[in-house]
Amino acid sequence: MRIDRADSEAELLGPPISNREIVKVVAGDFEVRLAKTAEEIDAAQALRYRVFYEEMKAQPSPETARLRRDFDAYDQICDHLLVLDRRRGEGPEGIVGTYRLIRREHAAKRGRFYSSAEYDVQKMVDFPGEVLEAGRSCIAKDARNTATMQMLWRGIALYAYHYNVQAMFGCASFPGTDPQQHAQAMSYLYHHHLAPPEIRVRAVESRYVNMEMLPRDDYDQRKAMARVPPLIKGYLRLGGYVGDGAVIDGQFNTTDVFVIVKTELVTEKYMRHYERGVNEKD
User: Fold this and answer.
1) Mean pLDDT of the chain, nearest integer
2) Residue 150 in contact with residue 266, Cβ under 8 Å?
3) Are 3 and 250 in contact (CB under 8 A)?
4) Are 166 and 130 in contact (CB under 8 A)?
5) Tell me, what's the pLDDT at 222?
6) Which domains does the chain have, with CATH numbers?
7) Where residue 275 falls among pLDDT bands split at 50, 70, 90?
8) pLDDT digits over 37-67, tens only?
9) Pair 263, 235: CB distance under 8 Å
10) Do 131 and 103 form a contact (C-beta atoms < 8 A)?
11) Please, are residues 207 and 177 in contact by the beta-carbon 8 Å criterion?
């Protein structure tokens, strides 16, 4: 999750915004949609700063600390998925969750996918059909619950459905920079959820950390799974896999693993739920 320095403060607010309605779900007080304004992107970056730098103790650059925003050049070319709690406001003040979505055409504008700083993602670049890199997953501390996460997933499902995305991927994190603290969980992921060879992305050699820290029979599988972070568990429940090798990210104070999810199960589960809700309203 290494940040590329922005070329200027103009990069903070991202690309010109159009009024895109390809993702829009309202459920009670919550709404999920793409960012519509520069002010909403700014608020999402402020939320990311609060979570990653203030809460998780990432190490900001002087510019990041001065602006109190998490941003990089990819914010210019991606789509920003937002969850809003409309009790807090209809616009920037209502944002409680965000995801950064980068499709192949977005990555081409930067010359690479974001996660290629940590992993050799050529197998994703060559994957037949559309692919989506999802990152910067972030939920406000006082909104960190199943309802908010479900809204984010419903938004991703609609986005994937609209663009016919066949696979999504990205880096997901364990807290801290000592992989040995997560030996059971990482060994479990390696033994039970390693991606098949045709999509098995591998950490770049200079940063590769072996995830198979314990033999298969040297740990309790249930206890190991309990130590897997909730976001990674969510990916696994949707049939997700992990790549080969973890990567230490000193700036963000995390140990990262690569996750790949074929989106068929994602879109089937959440589109069915969405269509049922629409029909019930009719």
Assistant:
1) 89
2) no
3) no
4) yes
5) 95
6) 9-281 (3.40.630.30)
7) low
8) 999 999 999 999 999 999 999 999 999 999 9
9) no
10) yes
11) no
